[in-house]
Amino acid sequence: MTVKEVLRAHAGYQAVHAGTQGARAGTRGARAGTRGARAECGNVRADTRAGDAGTRVEGEGGPTSSAAPAATVAAGRAAQELGIRRAEFELAVHLGLIAVVGAPGGGRPRVHEEEIARLREQPGFPDGLAERVRTVGTAEGAALLDIAPARFTRLARAGCVSPVTFYLNRYRAVVWLYLADELAAFASREPELLAGRTPSGMRTMLESGADWRPRNWRSQRIDRLLNRTRDPWVRTAVQASALDPVQLAEVVDDPYERAYLVRVRPEPVFGRPGSMAAREAMGELMLADDPDEILWRRVNLTLELDGAREDRPAPRPGDDGGIRTAPTVRAGAGSRTGTAIPASAAESAPPSVRPGAPGSPAAGVPTGKGLLARLGWRGRGAG
């Protein structure tokens, strides 16, 4: 190879080497541009995510719409967070200790998280809430009062202590349950009844077969339901739930009003008794059975009915107005064991009275009878 050929080859090698380096430089530049583009895309995505997050935070922290529902939890989860059993939770709702709200579409009741937080912040939680809903039977109640079970039964039959709920045992017998707090309060209030001889008046009443347990249970239940509503027709329906269809028809002689009372009667929050035996027992215990209690319920029903008629007439066929009732805040019932018995009115169909029959008053128009006549009171000498 001559010198010229060597120089030419060296010059070609340098040219090729320079071209390779240029290509590599171009590749590096392309890669750098790609990285820059990726970085810009990343910045755009980050900006987009930040904007979305900012939008979500603004939506959560800004003024909320009145239509936005508050956070609620199911009853089972609420009972778990409050450290009580489900039966105790239902009893707490029945007693008005826990506020529940109806689920959209008529589902099972739910509890606001704010209500759970309020209960958890109370002094003595969770033992305090569990103690307020602790129920005892006859044997445990007698041990709590340090008396014999027979004496406890006599005190309960005489109306000294009132049951809060009941259940059916396997023999379908009613077993009454009492709040432990109320028994302790009774012991401190009436210590003389826990020892010594039974007062003569109480002994005479017990010997006649009196039993005030069902009556006291009905009275407390009706009072709690009345405290949960302001609607006059709902209050009338609560009073009407203690009378059988015959007694109800004598006081409320308008069949449309009786049908309306059935429609607006408060339903149990956690469902009605499931078994037929429980429904029958509930229906029997719901009705007043003593003459003076029946008269008392008829008087209260008459007074509530007069107020309801003054507020608005009961709807009749063809009316386009809806049922206007005040929302209830707290409702529900609970039982301990056996067949659950919610504290609710057992629905009964109104008596079949032909609308427009003679003697049937117009809606919302008083009949003109006196109070005693409307109550079915008959004086001496009445045939």
Question: Would you write up a description of this structure?
Answer:
With 383 residues, the protein is mainly alpha-helical. The protein has 3 domains: 72-131; 136-207; 213-374, no CATH class. Helices cover 53% and strands 5% of the residues. The protein has helices at residues 3-61, 75-82, 86-94, 113-120, 127-132, 138-145, 149-157, 180-189, 200-207, 213-227, 232-240, 245-251, 255-264, 276-286, 291-311, 371-374, and strands spanning 72-74, 110-112, 135-136, 165-168, 174-179. The chain has a 3-stranded antiparallel sheet with strand order 3-5-4. A hairpin with a 5-residue loop joins β4 and β5. α11 (232-240) packs antiparallel against α15 (291-311). The radius of gyration is 37 Å and the shape is globular. The termini are far apart. Residues 1-7, 13-67, 322-368 and 378-383 have low confidence and may be disordered. This is DUF6397 family protein. It holds the Pfam family DUF6397. Residues 47-59, 307-322 have a biased composition (Basic and acidic residues).
Nearest-integer average pLDDT: 75
Order of helices and strands: HEHHEHHEHHEEHHHHHHHHH
Question: What gyration radius follows from the Cα positions, in whole Å?
Answer: 37 Å
Q: What about the largest sheet? A: 3 strands, antiparallel
Instruction: Count every beta strand, where a strand is a DSSP E run of 2 or more residues.
Output: 5
How much of the residues is beta strand, in percent? under 5%
Organism: Streptomyces anulatus
Region (Disordered): 47-70, 307-370
Biased composition (Low complexity): 340-370
Biased composition (Basic and acidic residues): 47-59, 307-322
